[in-house]
Amino acid sequence: MTPFVDVAFILLTFFIMATKFKPPEPLTITTPLSVSSQKLEEKDALLISFDSAGRVYLNVNLMKEEDKDLKRDFIQRVNNEANLGLTDADIQKFVGYSIIGSPLTELKAVMSRPVTDWDKIRQKGIPVDSSNNELARWMSAARQSFGTKQVDIMIKGDNNAKYPDFKGVIEALRANDIFKYKLITDPKGVPVGTELYQMRQSGGGSETES
Fold first, then answer.
1. Ranges of the chain with pLDDT below 70
2. H and E: helices and strands count for the chain
3. What's the Cα-to-Cα distance from 145 to each of 18, 25, 77, 78, 91, rounded to whole Å?
4. pLDDT number for residue 44
5. Mind giving me the DSSP string for 83-109?
């Protein structure tokens, strides 16, 4: 028995050391309820998130290793157009952790810090107001960098967010002729006892497509 116990502890130690845990999301969002039967697929996406305070974040979620060059081109375009002064080290950080939630004027200061600090900083969010919709600039760069790649646009908004915040996100997409996107919702609003409810209870996802 002793050798088997040793092997068990060795395997347990290996899995603990090798496991990569999902990093916490920078925003706390309670999505609206929905009764959609379509489950979101895990695929390449640009995720636009905004919380109840209206802070907007952009997550460039590309799945393949070779997509790093696309991420680098994307952030480099924004860097050049907005004259941000990002260094090669800053750009490399973004390639590894592609979540942004700051105005362009503050982006350099955020990206100069270690990536582990990015979620600790209470970033103000990407402006989406009518006088300064910086999300439109990000989406313009995305269209140019990812134009030949199939990338889904996903919107995840808090149930208590204000309408102007949602409108600002939509206007940023419209400014770039993007009229197709997916809304992430919570399927818990399915009526109890229905066929869809039974399907969800047997293993449906926590996010749906609208």
1. 1-42, 187-210
2. 8, 8
3. 33, 25, 8, 10, 15
4. 83
5. T----HHHHHHHHHS-EE-S-HHHHHH
